Amino acid sequence: MDHIALKEALHRLNDRERRILALRFYEGKTQMEVSAEVGISQAQVSRLEKGAIDTIRKNL
């Protein structure tokens, strides 16, 4: 995978989506832990995470 393309795809996400992905994949937190930290439900974390990953895939 091209690191430059990934970096550009990540920049297309909004701040909340980037934060959720960082907490989930860089810090290894569960969706429940992320929901408590961000102040939204676990279901919202799941939806935002899926949407962010879909956006990244479309931009790669």
TrEMBL record:
Q: Which UniProt keywords apply?
A: DNA-binding, Sigma factor, Transcription, Transcription regulation
For molecular function, the Gene Ontology terms on record are: DNA binding; sigma factor activity
> Any one Gene Ontology biological process term?
DNA-templated transcription initiation
Q: Which PROSITE patterns match?
A: SIGMA70_2
Q: Does the keyword Repeat apply?
A: no
Domain (RNA polymerase sigma-70): residue spans on this chain: 30-56
Question: Record's SUPFAM superfamilies?
Answer: Sigma3 and sigma4 domains of RNA polymerase sigma factors
Give one Pfam family.
Sigma70_r4
> Which NCBIfam families does the annotation name?
sigma70-ECF
Please give the PANTHER family that the UniProt record associates with this protein: RNA POLYMERASE SIGMA-E FACTOR, SIGMA FACTOR F FLAGELLAR
What name does the UniProt record give this protein? RNA polymerase sigma-G factor
